[in-house]
Amino acid sequence: MAALQLLRRSCTSHLAGGANFVARRWRHTQRFASSAVPAGGPKGAEAAQEFYSDEAVTKAGQVALNRFTDEERYLFDLNGFLVVRGVLSPAEVAAANDAMDAHQEDAQERNGILRNTRLRTPFAGDGSSGRLDLGGMLAWPSAGGDAFRSLLAHPKLVPALTALCGPGYRMDHLPLGILQNRGSEGFALHGGPLNSEGQFNPTLQYRCMNGTLFNSLLAMSVQLSDHEAGDGGFCVVRGSHKQNFPMPKAFIDGGGELGEAHVHQPVTRAGDVVFFSEATVHGAMPWNAEHQRRVVLYRFAPATVAYSRAYAPAWAEAVREHLTPAQRAVLEPPYAARLDRPVLTKGGDEKPDYGAPRPEVKKAFDQAVFGSRYF
């Protein structure tokens, strides 16, 4: 009994001490907050509620979301990809192609171990011609470079990018120009929400919750040449972004009955843009047309998500040098929208919206606690 009474006194003493400590910390925090909140500003619980509200960020993004149609939302959710017709004008397509002409000698051919297909498979092409990869276009200091930079925040693309990645979307990979001459190999089927063992792949995911679409990694393929039926190029397994079983290995090379029945090559025109989730199984057929295939592939991610590490510790200065404020907003590193992230509403030459700027009282408090204005 004596031991029990001693234990009770000890617990009571600790609880009282803990309560006193919490009370002292609370009074200190209140003094700090009351001194930092502007006169007439919110206080106490009301202030805390405002600090953590994402409503203003959502409202800013809603301006762009309103221009993404119900039909587009339905088709992307159904198929895992979406073709947006006529995004670029003939003049914009011509400017991009002229710039690629000027830099085509810099393109690198994928040969040997770098090939994207296995020999003597349906996607292998003539077995010798590799795909040509071209980068660096965001750093090109010409009108041609402007054609590629404009795609980061193009008024006709911001609605889809916001709907598919959320407000404050960010560029994840550096843009890649893909060139294929007749006979060039394609690319074996890849991507999907599961790894080869059928396990959850956290880096490539798609979800739709309460009408909101989520892609951990979104591809945007800008068409700079026509793709007629049978020409080859981008292909997709429709609906595979929702698959629950790993892709059969016999299917990877695009052959057999599975390939014939389920691999789809969209018909596109120069100026169209194809959006697809990296959670959708996709690839490329060998190129069969006489003209050179040309696309530029961008990848985007939600505000807090990163796959590539090209942004760390910072994008190259040559990449950032010629960007407008709206384009620069898309190159922000991953962090939450409520931490002063610029959000686009319409693109073009707009000044980015910050939704709900993080209150100075919070940034001052973080500075006092962490030595940094953001925790």
Please provide a written account of the structure.
This protein is an alpha+beta fold and 375 residues long. The chain has one domain: Sandwich (Jelly Rolls), CATH 2.60.120. 32% of the residues lie in helices and 17% in strands. The protein has eleven helices and 13 strands. It has helices at 2-36, 44-51, 55-65, 70-79, 90-103, 143-149, 158-165, 256-262, 317-320, 325-330, 360-370, and strands spanning 81-84, 108-109, 132-134, 170-180, 187-190, 206-209, 212-215, 218-223, 233-237, 263-264, 273-277, 282-285, 293-301. The strands form three sheets. Strands 1-11-8-13-4-3-2 form a seven-stranded antiparallel β-sheet. A hairpin with a 2-residue loop joins strand 6 and strand 7. Helix 5 crosses helix 6. The two termini are 49 Å apart. The model is unreliable at 1-8 and 10-42 (pLDDT under 50).
What is the overall silhouette?
Answer: globular
Give the distance, in angstroms, between the N- and C-terminal Cα atoms. 49 Å
CATH topology: Jelly Rolls
CATH architecture annotation? Sandwich
Q: What is the CATH superfamily?
A: q2cbj1_9rhob like domain
The helix/strand order is HHHHEHEEHHEEEEEEHEEEEHHH
**Rg computed from alpha carbons, rounded to a whole number of angstroms:** 26 Å
Given as residue ranges, the uncertain stretches (5+ residues, pLDDT < 50) are 1-8, 10-42
Helix tally equals 11
Number of domains: 1
Mean pLDDT: 87
**Spatial strand arrangement across the major sheet:** 1-11-8-13-4-3-2
Largest sheet, strands/sense/barrel: 7 strands, antiparallel
Top CATH class: Mainly Beta
Number of strands: 13
**Proportion of residues in helical segments:** 25-40%
What is the strand content? 15-25%
Derived from helix and strand composition plus strand pairing, the structural class reads alpha+beta
